[in-house]
Design brief:
There is one protein chain. The protein is built from 7 helices and no strands. The chain has about 240 residues and is mostly helical. It folds into 3 domains: about 1-45, no CATH class; about 90-145; about 165-230, no CATH class.
């Protein structure tokens, strides 16, 4: 009987050794999980009714729980992004910052819209200035053309009246409009004008002479003012 008990003892010893090895492997895994900061993996399963000590709820990468690390402030240990873990003062500050940010965004949007409106207004003003310049240039061209036509017409009348006899020319000058008559007389030669004025009615001749003298005085004043404006300013004494 004794020789048969030896194999049984050997088998029992192997079974006990396997159980011990499993317990040791479980403890090693628990320590490894604690060192890596994984609280879920740090809870080993109970082996044969034996419970293991409870692990920390949270651990830093170095294996030290965040709540026990003296290098981490107490407020920083809690999550600041979770509204449920924030104080009323922090929530009020965040709300004020959000309102300020919204106000600044709205102001920036208003400024951008005003810049767009100003650019559009400037473009419209530039377009109007361009149109006015075009109109002004067209008016200047038309005025020059009109002046050229009037000068040509006056020159034609001057040639006609200079070729006429003084008596015949005086008969026409008696009824001719004063502005046209003055334009013609200003361009006629003086030796041609004198016989015509002599053949006119004395009152009409006096009226023409006074109007011609007044026009020449006005032209002299205009020329003097133009020359004074164009002359350089005298240095102060």
């Amino acid at each position: 009987m004794k020789p048969r008990l030896i194999p049984l003892v050997i088998v029992a010893a192997c079974l006990l050794l396997g159980v011990k090895v499993a317990d040791i492997w479980t403890v090693i895994q628990a320590h490894a999980a604690t060192a890596q900061g994984d609280p879920a993996a740090a809870k080993p399963e109970a082996a044969k009714g034996a419970a293991t000590p409870a692990q920390p709820a949270a651990a830093q990468p170095g294996g030290v729980p965040e709540s026990l690390d003296p290098a981490v402030p107490a407020k920083q240990a809690t999550s600041t992004t979770d509204p449920l873990l924030m104080s009323p003062e922090e929530i009020d500050l965040l709300q004020k910052l959000a309102a300020r940010r919204a106000e600044l965004d709205k102001r920036a949007q208003d400024i951008a819209q005003q810049e767009v409106l100003l650019k559009a207004a400037e473009q419209r003003i530039d377009d109007k200035i361009t149109k006015l310049s075009t109109i002004e240039n067209g008016i200047d061209v038309k005025v020059q053309q009109k002046q050229q036509q009037d000068a040509e017409r006056v020159q034609g009348l001057v040639k006609i009246y200079e070729a006429m006899k003084p008596v015949d020319a005086a008969r026409i000058f008696q009824e001719l409009d004063m502005p046209v008559l003055l334009d013609v007389l200003e361009h006629m030669k003086e030796r041609k004008v004198a016989p015509i004025l002599a053949a006119l009615d004395p009152n009409r001749a006096k009226e023409i002479t006074d109007a011609l003298a007044a026009r020449r005085d006005q032209e002299a004043k205009i020329n003097a003012a133009s020359n004074a404006a164009a002359a350089p300013a005298a240095p102060p004494k």
